[in-house]
Design goal:
Elements: E1 9-12, H1 22-31, E2 37-42, H2 54-63, E3 68-73, H3 81-87, E4 91-94, H4 102-111, E5 115-120, E6 138-142, H5 157-171, E7 176-180, H6 188-194, E8 198-201, H7 203-206, H8 211-219
Parallel strand pairs: 1-8, 2-3, 3-4, 4-5, 5-6, 6-7, 7-8
Helix pairs in contact: 2-3
The protein binds D-xylitol-5-phosphate and zinc ion.
The site of zinc ion (ZN) has 6 residues, from strand 2.
């Protein structure tokens, strides 16, 4: 399938939202055309930062109809899968470095009724995916080193997006390919053309004056 035929989903990352007004922020992106809410969970171990966890996801679930795309940046992801699913995660992505038995982890995520995702750090090769193609619903390709919002997109990620897209077309054609980190209205077209169909964007949405305009531009729609 060519890039222009693919349905593109925009997943604003609430890491860049105003946490004091989180329900309003999520309502605003929903009204502005967001497809998915990206939720970054950090534990201060797997990444050098702390963010939010189960109580916030539970609260978000009550105020939005959008799917919650939960990105686990935590060392003991396996211990928490059931609790994140119960709290309301619809998609659950894990980093292979944090999961000793990735095949089992992905199977568990599906058993819990969630879409199973693998998040690839900038240095992590496609070999992490090689033998789990049949367990995958989503690949979350990190185009920054995880841990912080507002970082600059790593340019060589574009080649990696192409490579993962080629691999998915062959091995897991129903899986989606998300790109996370430094995605903005200037590089979104490049990212989409390379094969991404889920664009995660924190700053590019929540720092914009008009969320609707930002989301449309990321998607490649004219408003
Ligand atoms: C980084 C997170 C990203 C981050 C993206 O660890 O996984 O989801 O919030 O933020 P921006 O779009 O500002 O780079
Ligand atoms: Zn993320």
């Amino acid at each position: 399938m060519s890039a222009s035929q693919r349905t593109v989903r925009i997943a604003p990352s609430i890491l860049a939202a105003d946490f004091a007004r989180l329900a309003d922020e999520v309502a605003a992106i929903e009204a502005a055309g967001a497809d998915v809410v990206h939720v970054d969970v950090m534990d201060g171990h797997f990444v050098p930062n702390l963010s939010i966890g189960l109580p916030v996801i539970r609260a978000l679930k009550r105020v939005t109809r959008l799917p919650l795309d939960v990105h686990l940046m935590i060392t003991n992801a396996d211990d928490f899968l059931a609790r994140y699913a119960e709290a309301g995660a619809d998609w659950l992505s894990v980093h292979p470095e944090a999961c000793l038995h990735l095949d089992r982890t992905l199977a568990t995520i599906r058993e819990l009724g969630c879409r199973a995702g693998v998040a690839l750090n900038p240095h992590t090769g496609l070999d992490a995916l090689t033998w789990v193609g049949d367990r995958l619903d989503h690949v979350l390709l990190m185009s920054v080193n995880p841990g912080f919002g507002g970082q600059r997109f790593i340019p060589r990620s574009v080649d990696k997006i192409r490579a993962v897209r080629e691999w998915l077309d062959r091995e897991a054609p129903d899986a989606t390919l998300g790109v996370d980190g430094g995605v903005n209205t200037s590089n979104a077209e490049l990212v989409r053309r390379a094969g991404a169909d889920v664009l995660v964007a924190g700053s590019a949405v929540f720092r914009a004056d008009d969320y609707r305009v930002a989301i449309a531009a990321l998607r490649g729609d004219s408003v």
